[in-house]
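Morning, I've got a small favour to ask if you have a moment. It would help a lot if you went through both lines with me. I owe you a coffee for this, so here goes:
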Amino acid sequence: MSDHYELARMPITTDRWHTHYGWSEHEAQEFGDSSWEVRIFACSESYRRELEADTAGTFEFGYGGSGPHDAARAILADRGVDLTQWSPADLRTFLPEVFERDDDRGYTTLSIPTADIDRRLSLVGIQVQS
């Protein structure tokens, strides 16, 4: 079981342009590694598992677009939370770190302890199976 989630801003590799974004190998090589994306990992001391998005490049953190909402949904779904009735405001309540913006920080990785998420959920009666 994971003890934290990492949202990491990483370069999009040539291989990833091809395998996750659907670009031809030639197009991917032409574009190279000059763009970035946010990827999410469930982590513990002994492993790191990537949470896959429905569409590559949909996760983000620290701004007001749809990316933080998609990132928050992915993390909560990974915790086993049924999100069918959740609003964007709910997502901001249970994962505020994903939405906080600190332009001076210039971070490329955001780490959120699983215990913090589970504690917030328990306050409204949602118990996560560990």
Observations:
- Residues 4-122 form one domain.
